[in-house]
Design a protein that fits this description.
Helix content: over 70%
Strand content: under 5%
Distance between the termini: 14 Å
Number of strands: 0
Number of helices: 6
Order of helices and strands: HHHHHH
Length: 170
């Protein structure tokens, strides 16, 4: 049963990473919000399963990190129907929780160093983006260079988590 749950979590992360990145680059509001909604549901499911996995393994900090990441992703999901400009408050809260969750998951040597580094870089970029929004910068979830620069690091972290999940099945 555990390998099935790992596979479901890996699929959720893969769907989330792929559709999240794709949504950033599409011009259509409706398509973007649809992609981001599917992305967020996949990531929430994955983060819930990862929370349970690491809690059962006795790694409370990593489990709490995935739970915090789940809370952030839920805020992002809630803002999707509001469109870009109106979603900025929930977006800022969501990426702040992403950053906290990424740091918590990566604080211990549970994952390979490269994954922990990509997570930390993403967290720093999301914290800077959050602070810029709070200080009045007109950033949207699609703005470049920030916050868009954080997404590839987040997806690289997801790839590492997927690799870890699938590797543990062999």
């Amino acid at each position: 049963m555990r390998s099935t749950l790992d596979t479901i979590a890996a699929i959720g992360l893969a769907v989330g990473g792929a559709l999240g990145m794709a949504g950033t680059f599409v011009a259509s509001d409706a398509l973007r919000e649809t992609l981001w909604t599917i992305d967020a549901v996949g990531v929430v499911v994955a983060a819930a399963l990862l929370t349970m996995k690491y809690q059962r393994l006795g790694n409370d900090l990593v489990a709490a990190g995935f739970l915090t990441f789940l809370a952030g992703e839920s805020l992002l999901l809630a803002g999707n129907a509001a469109r870009l400009q109106a979603s900025v408050p929930s977006y800022a809260g969501g990426i702040a929780l992403w950053a906290a969750g990424l740091v918590m998951v990566s604080a211990q040597a549970t994952f390979a160093l490269w994954m922990r580094l990509t997570a930390f870089i993403a967290a720093v970029l999301f914290v800077v983006s959050t602070l810029m929004i709070l200080w009045g910068a007109p950033l949207l979830p699609t703005s470049s260079p920030l916050p868009a620069l954080g997404y590839p690091f987040l997806v690289l972290t997801f790839i590492g988590w997927i690799w870890t999940l699938l590797k543990s099945e062999r």
